[in-house]
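Justification of resources, computational component.

The compute hours requested in this renewal are based largely on the per-chain cost of generating structure records like the one below. Each record pairs the submitted sequence with a full structure-token output. That output is archived, and it is also reused by downstream analysis tasks.
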Amino acid sequence: MSIFRNDVLAGQVAIVTGGGTGICKGITRGLLAHGASVCITSRKQEVIDATAAELEAETGGKVLAVSSDVRDPEAAQRVVAATVEKFGRLDILVNGAAGNFLAPAAALSPNGFKTVVDIDLNGTFHFCKAAFDELCKAGKDKGACIINITATLHYHGTPMQLHASAAKAGVDALTKNLAVEWGQFGVRVNSIAPGPIGDTEGMKRLAPGGMKEKVLSMVPMGRFGRSDEIANMAVFLASEAGEWISGQVMVVDGGNSVVQQTILG
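The structure output for this chain reads:
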């Protein structure tokens, strides 16, 4: 049972990049369960097709699956056009597509650094730019919002995460700048910074072996987060309850980022 009204996002239309898996699949589920129609996009059509079928059956909502590479500005434009053609409007953009891997800075290749920045930061910009006109239309109607999925890696030095830290720091800066520039059009722009989420592939890849226990020891609330807890924040920001919130980074991490500097410093 949701803490929100089931129809709190009724009639709204969203795009979720990276919506086929992980945290963003959870966000897609949350948006659908509260009345929104959603276009999900990532590079593998078979993955998003499977997710679309699963979530439609689970929630009764409408899902459009369109493959794209967020690094390609023209692909972003195609996704927006397909969404508007299918659903008639666009109210919510969730930028969640991301790339990451563990790499010591001294061993990180220029191509590896560039790839993560291209996906996380440039991909976010491409979709914001592509969605601007349609979001402005919704903004004049009843308001529109962008939700960027960022991280807490750059709040303190995080070993083996230079590339992702730099990219997500850029996403936070983009969030604040767009909030200032686009607020006049009725478009709110915020970020969600998840802490360690236990039910994701990323946790397996980025916290292998005994590292998972070490990460858990740095969460004051004593447990990993869940994808649905990130989805709840997304639903809140997209709803009327968040209509006076813009330019903010909403940290959802069980207190992890508060203690990290003390333990690692």
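The chain is about 50% helix and 15% strand. The mean pLDDT is 93.
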